[in-house]
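Protocol step 4 of 6: structure prediction from sequence.
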Amino acid sequence: MRSPFSIHKTLLAVLDITITVIGFSFTFWYVFPSGMYYNSRPYPVYFIPSILTIVIIFLITFQLKGLYKYQVLTDSFVHIQTILNCYVYSLVVFVLMIFFMKTEYIADSRLTIGLGFLFSFILMIISRVIILPRIFCLFVRKGIINKKALIVGAGIHGRDICNCLDNNPESYFEIVGFVDDNTKHAGTHFCGKEVLGTSHNIAKLVKTFNVKEIIIAISNIEKEKLLDIIDRCKTAGVVIHVISELFLKVYEKLQVEEFGGLITYRIVPGQNGVVRSAAKRIIDVAGSGFLLMLSTPLFLIIALAVKRDSHGPTFYRSEVVGRGGRTFLTYKFRTMIDKHAVRDLDRQRYNEGRKKHTEFMKNFIQGKVQNEYYLNDESRITRVGRFLRKYSFDELPQLINVFKGEMSLVGPRFCSPEEYSFYKPWHKQRFAVKPGITGVWQVFARSAVSYDDMVMLDLYYIQNKSLLFDLEILLRTVSVVLFGRGSRIIDKQEDIRMKVSGKGKRTKDKGARRKAGSRRF
C-alpha cells in the first residue's frame, strides 16, 4: 500500500519538529537552568509535555494552512505570510488550552511561551524560507530531485504542459513520453517525446520506463471519459496529476498542488487498505458516540424548540441513497412545515414547495440551470428550522447513522432516491464509499458550486482519502458550523448585499488577479 505521506512532506514535517524542539528547548534552558535570565533552576515538570503539545499543534496547523505543498518553497512572501499565520493560530490554541485545562503539565509562563514562539519562528524563517528553497533548487539543477513522468494526452494541451515543464528551472520532472488513446498518434513525436502507447497499457509503460508520476493533460473531453482514463491510470499505482479545465472549480476551492507554475489535481492511489478502513470505523464509532453524549443537552433544547415552533414530529426521517446505491433511513431535526399539518394552507405550501424543489433539483443535477445553486423559495422552512440549517444543527441526529455504520463522519453527501434517478452515470461514482455528515464540498464550497462540481469535489476526496485528510475536514467543519459560513440561508443574504453594494464584481476580479500568476492552460 502506498503511503499517503510523500517523502518531501515527511522531510518537511521532520524539519518542523526539529526546529520546534530546538527553539523551545533553548527557551526552557535560557529561562531555567542557564542562570542567564534568573538564578539557575531545574527544568519544570511541564518541560517535555509542553513541547510535545506545541509540536502536535504546529503539525496540524501547518497541514491545514498548506505548508507541506511544493508551491510554498518557491514563493518567499507567501511562505513567510503563511508561517506567521500558523504561529498566530497555534499561539491562540495553546493559550486557550492553558486557560481551559489549568494543569501543571502545560506551561503557563508568559515569558517561556513568548520566547519559545519567537525563537522557533526565527529558526523556522531561516530554515524554511532562506535555506530550504535554495537547497531544493540546487537539487533540481543537479538532478538529485528528479521524477520520470508520462503525459497522457498528445494534443495542444499536453504539448503546452510538456514545454512548460521542460523550460521551467524549478521543474523536477523528466518527461519520458506521451500516452494517447488516438491510435493515429502512435509512434509520432511531440516536443521531442514519443507517443508510447494508449492509456489501456499504461501500467506496463510505467514499469518499463520506471515512471514515478503521471500527468493527465486533457481538456477537450467529457468528464465521464476523463474519469475512466483516471481509473486506468490508477492501476499503475503511482501519483497522478490532472491538469484540465474540467477541474477548474476543484482547483479554485481546494487550492490543490502546484508545481512548475502549473495547478494540478493530485491523486495518490492505493489508500484503501484494511487497516485504514478499520481505523476509520473505530474513529467513527468513538467520535459519534462521544458527540452524542456531549450533545445530549443540545438535543433536548432543539427538540423543545422544534415542538414549540410548529406542529409536527421533532425528527424528520427520510430514505436516502448511500454506499453502493443502497438505501437507508436517515434522521434530522424537522426544519420544515409538517406534510400532515392541520392547516390546509400549510399542507398546500408544503406540497407546492416539494414540487418546486423536485423540479429544481432535476434541472440542477442535469446542469440545466446556470448560476443558481439553491431553490429561492423557502416558504416551507420554519423559523427554528432557518436557524438550525444556518448552523447545520438539523443534521446532528445523523450521528446515530454514523454509530450504526450507515454513514461516516467524513464522506460524500447522500441523496434521495428521487434525486438519484436524475443522476448522470458518472455522478454515481460518489457512492463508492459511505456518505458522511461532513465532507469536502460542504467545507470548501458548501452551496456555491454546480452539481457537477459538487460531485467532482466528492470524487477528489474518494481518490485522495486518508485519515489525515479526514482530520483536516473535521477541523475545518468546526469553523463552518460556528460561523454558519457557506449555508444557503447566509448565501441569499450575501447575494442581496453584494448586488446592492456592487462588490460582487470587484471580489471576483480580485480573486482572478490573485490567481493570475499560476498557469492552468
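Step 5 (inspection) to follow. Residues 1-5, 489-521 have pLDDT under 50 and may be disordered.
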